[in-house]
Amino acid sequence: MASGTTGQLTAAELSARRLRRRLVIAAVFAVSLILIVLNANARGNVPSGTTVEGVSIGGLSAEQATSVLTKKLAPRIKKDITLTADGREVTVDAQKAGLALDAESTVSKATSLTGTGNVFSRLFGKGGAIEPVYKVNQSALDRSIAKISKKLNRGVVDGGLAFSGTTVEAIEPEAGKGVSAESVTSALLATALAKNRKHEISLEDIQPALSSQQVQEALNSLGQTVVSGPISLEVSVPGTDESAGINKTVTLPIRRLSPFLSTAVVDKKIQIAVNANALIKNLQKDLAGLQEPARDATFRISNGKPVILPSRDGQQVNAQALGGAVARALSSDEDRVADVGLTTQPAAFTTEDAKKLGVVEKISTFTQPFPYAPYRYQNIGQAAKRVNKTLLKPGDVFSLNSIAKERTPENGYTTGFVIKSGRLQEDLGGGVSTMATATWHAAFFAGLERIEQRAHSFYISRYQPGLEATVAWGTLDLKFRNDSPNGVFVTAVRGRNFVRVTMWGTKRYDIEADSGPRTNPKPYATVTDTSATCTPQDGVSGFKIVVTRVFKLNGKEVKREPLTTTYNPAADITCKKPKPTPAPTPTTTAKPTVKPTPKPTG
User: Fold this and answer.
1) 28 — phi, psi (to 5°)?
2) Which parts of this chain are annotated as the region Disordered (predicted)?
């Protein structure tokens, strides 16, 4: 207001006053909103609408949001992801690549003022999609990036040295197309927790790590040193109060070592790399008497009771130490000695571990007879040998296919009769289902949890109906879980015409099998087959049966588990050779006596 005037305001003064009033109101409103948001943050609330890789955490407390992300989002990282680049692809385990969800930091980011959405949305308590925060094992990530780049890069050769026999040659560097470490890292972070497990990476021009001159210099210096002569491998075992020390020297000519040598580029320099694991295998005869493998504790049966076979620590040449020592010796003009010792290899499963399992008594046994046939004897024997001495720790799942292996000649199996499409046919592994039946019986009466078990498609009279099992590689398995708090030790023995499976542990229940009547009968058909591949078989009617597993504790029933099996009818098949085409001039011949072909029983 101008001096010497009345209380009236000019238009300009009135406009300025209104502007100041509006600014004050706006400032108060903004401060109030900020205080509201800060108050919400102080309480740890996540703004509404906040999501992390599709998982909603809006409106939750920080503790609740952390729990939700850990439960719903963290398991995704266990699923493999696929990275592609111009048609090539590589499968990556994000966990092995060193990535893990940092749920707490992710929630902290979500509750910060600028964590989600734009600032104005955040002021009004609205969130948005945010990227997860990771815990990163940098060394594991670097190793993974190197492997990924090697598979996706095209035509990129860093340069190096190649060894063959007693000679060395240069590997010339070449530029090419590839993926950068930054692009691989971004792809891993974008995909590790995403629903979409695939990510495309763009190729870039990649220059080799070395120049041609650097490779040539390495060839003339390091390369010639490596092939200049043999090295000595000295293995030293220090003595103890009970035994004298051992020192053994093995001379290793370059011709023997060259198959295990390559080079790596480290800090723009070529270094010798040794495939130590393969070299140790090659040196087994040279190291005989020095190394002793670790032995895990297990069990054996003595006088009808399980006893512990104690564990034993081993003594082994450490592969990493061997590789480093050999590389240093080969790179030296003077001291061409690789000196290594033995390291203790602890048993993975110790005597104390075995004692805690409670394997103290027989909990079930079952003997399944079978008609002797050479193929049954061999195939059942192979499966029994692999099942024998299986130890199931609490929670372990028994899989007959995994233990018995694929039925191939290489695994010791031969051809026998199996059921395919309701008919007996010849195939590898015939008879293994007898092993499955004996094993399932033992697991049934041990009270172990049934996971996967299927009866034969039609009934075979030597088996108890509804209490048998069949397996087929790649399609049918026998699986059960040790759902007890104790271990279960499985033994199996095959005789000439039987196989017996016994389970040892701590008895929990008395198990009974309550077999119901055979219902829903279905007659079988009669078939005459003139095909060259016909296999005769007896007809079997189909039916349905329910066998209930009854669990009793101290004489009282505590649980019933009904198992329903439906058997299909099996046709009665008679094989007849097709009638030959009549000759142009028939002649009278004696009619041969045809003997019926015996029918196999599977």
Assistant:
1) -60, -40
2) 567-602
Mean pLDDT score, 371-390 = 94
Instruction: Identify residue 10 by its one-letter amino acid code.
Output: T
Between the CA of residue 441 and those of 16, 364, 371, what are the distances in Å? 95, 9, 19
* Count of helices and strands (H, E) across the chain: 15, 35
Single pTM value for the model: 0.62
Q: How confident is the model at residue 594 (pLDDT cuts 50, 70, 90)?
A: very low
Q: What is the mean pLDDT of the chain?
A: 87
Contact (CB, 8 A) for 471 and 455: no
233 class by beta-carbon count within 10 Å (0-12 exposed, 13-18 middle, 19+ buried): buried
Among 500, 504, 502, CA closest to 487:
504
Q: Please give the helix or strand (H or E) that residue 105 lies within, else none.
A: helix 103-111
Helix, strand or coil for residue 239?
coil
Host domain of residue 320: 229-348
Enumerate the β-bridge partners of residue 167. 164
Q: Is the same domain home to 401 and 300?
A: no
Q: What does the alpha-carbon distance between residue 441 and residue 515 come to, in Å, rounded to a whole number?
A: 14
Examine the domain organization and report whether 370 and 507 are in the same domain: yes
User: Is the CB of residue 528 less than 8 Å from the CB of residue 576?
Assistant: yes
Q: Are 559 and 551 in contact (CB under 8 A)?
A: yes
Compute the distance between CA of residue 152 and CA of residue 144 in angstroms, rounded to an integer: 12
Distance separating alpha carbons of residues 458 and 542, to the nearest angstrom: 7
Reported residue count of the chain is: 602
Cα distance between residue 325 and residue 337, in whole Å: 8
Which residues are CB-contacts of 75 (< 8 A; sequence separation ≥ 6)? Answer: none
Judge whether residue 598 has pLDDT over 90. Answer: no
* Pair 531, 415 in one domain: yes
Model confidence over 307-348: pLDDT tens digits?
Answer: 999 999 998 999 999 999 999 999 999 889 999 988 889 999
Residue 42's pLDDT band, with cuts at 50, 70 and 90, is: very low
